[in-house]
Amino acid sequence: MEKDFDKKALTDMYKDKFLAPENEKRQVAAPDGSIIEIDPLDDYFCQERPKELKPRKGAVEKFLNWARAESLWVLGFGTGCGSIEIPPLVTPRFDMYRYGVQMRPTPRQSNVFIISGYLSVKTLKRAIRSYEQMPSPKYIIALGSCTINGGMYWDSYNTINRLDHFMPVDVYIAGCMPRPEALLAGFGKLKELIKEGKGEKANEYARNFDWYKANQKKIIKDWNMPDFNW
Amino acid sequence: MKDFLKDIESRFQTTDTIQQKECLAFTTVDKSRAIAMVTWLKENAGYSSLILLTAVDWIEDGVFQLTYLLNNPENGNEIGIRVGIDREGATMESAHHLWENMMTYQRELKEMFGIDFPGSPRVDESFILEGWDDIPPYRRDFDTKKYSEETFFPRPGRKTNDPTQYMKSKLYPKD
After folding, report:
1. How much of chain A, in percent, has pLDDT values that exceed 90?
2. What interface predicted TM-score (ipTM) does this complex get?
3. Mutate to test the interface with A, among B108, B128, B148 (most CBs of A within 10 A)
4. CB A72 within 8 A of CB A96
5. What residues in B contact A156, CB-CB < 8 Å?
6. CA dist A108 to A25, A84, A116, A132, A137, Å?
7. What is the mean pLDDT of chain A?
């Protein structure tokens, strides 16, 4: 799985060509009046690799896993046609609040990311960025057959085929589209996994970070964001 | 509508005029007169609303066919102006000064078909394909299946059945 991967060379290659305007080096006036030069890619983002979270001992970890399983906060980021299945979940008919599942507006507050359907390359870039900003432990639910093998977009020039090469997936929900009931079942499955201590995909992401990054950079050709988005 | 089509035929030497129904017609005009005709339709004939600008790749003829679809809000008539342009080094005069939203269509055509519209605002910025480095994907010589297989890590094991053969083998296994 691990491959030789020269992060620095890749970043430098794309740095000049595609650098987003907000990430360009610029001079800024500090509060004390002095002019300082900042390089957002280096200064605004943490340069440390993601770390694996080691489990606590015995009953403490069990308690923590129970707590994690009962408060799944979902990032409000709809990525495909499947995002239309999420509004019914919030309404009284399905009511996901019963299960401790609720929507959150920002990645910093959430720990579950539902990839709801196909991902175009443009969206994948935003999805990766959002995922990396979520605090660990974090989980991904992949909704619909598009995330498994591309679904009906398997031969498209612009949508990815399998999600697990770019982001670690905890639970797949098959179907095109899965009904909200299936999504609730997926949450149930995710809870089981977390309570058994198997919701370890964030750690897997940290372990195989270079492999994931190499795959992401193969697809996203205008890599104009920092490698470490946290 | 018939008189109107005759009128524009005499004005702009349009050819291949087809009237699809009472309120919809398509006509073909030479590239050099196209923008003049669109301008005239907008300013003088009441076709003030742009519905869309789209392109078709006639690879066998070496031609991109642009269609300007215009609507006349007063009587509800619609007219499509078809313009053939060379596939090699495809360029077309920009019409962004007539409708503001034209620049978005032109930007999309630049990205998807590689048709250049010199002078159109932001036409060189990427629209939805960020950092695309292959030939434009809507051209018919672009093989989307091959590109997808080479790029997007296809999951092995996907196979498709010919429906006729599959149903035959299911329903009449003895034959």
Report:
1. 43
2. 0.79
3. B148
4. no
5. 144, 148
6. 26, 23, 19, 10, 12
7. 86
Residue appearing with tokens 């031969």: A155
pLDDT score of A17: 55
**Mean pLDDT score, B23-43:** 94
For residue B127, the model assigns a pLDDT of 85
User: Would you state the pLDDT for residue A8?
Assistant: 53
**pLDDT higher than threshold 60 for residue A5:** no
Show the 3-state SS of A80-116.
Answer: CHHHHHHHHHHCCCCCHHHHCEEEECCHHHCCEEEEE
From the list B137, B155, B158, the residue facing A157 with the nearest CB is: B137
What per-residue string of b and e applies to A66-102 under the rule 16 or more CB within 10 Å gives b? eebbeebbbbbbbbbbbbebbebbbeeebebeebebe
Closest-CA residue to A117 (of A148, A158, A162, A82): A82
Beta-carbon contacts of A39 under 8 Å, excluding residues fewer than 6 positions away, are A25
Is CATH 3.30.70.2190 the classification given to domain B2-155? no
Contact assignment for A18 to B131 by CB distance below 8 Å: yes
Chain B residues near residue A18 by CB distance under 8 angstroms: 130-131
Q: Where are the domains of chain B?
A: 2-155
Average pLDDT, chain B: 91
Kindly state the average pLDDT of the residues B98-113: 92
The pTM is what?
0.83
B152: contact with A, CB 8 A cutoff: yes
In a mutagenesis test of the B interface, which of A158, A172, A215 is the best target, namely the one with the most B β-carbons within 10 Å?
A158
Q: Tell me, which fold does domain A72-219 have in CATH?
A: Rossmann fold (3.40.50)
Q: Region B132-160: what's the mean pLDDT?
A: 87
Write out the two tokens for B8. 């524009």
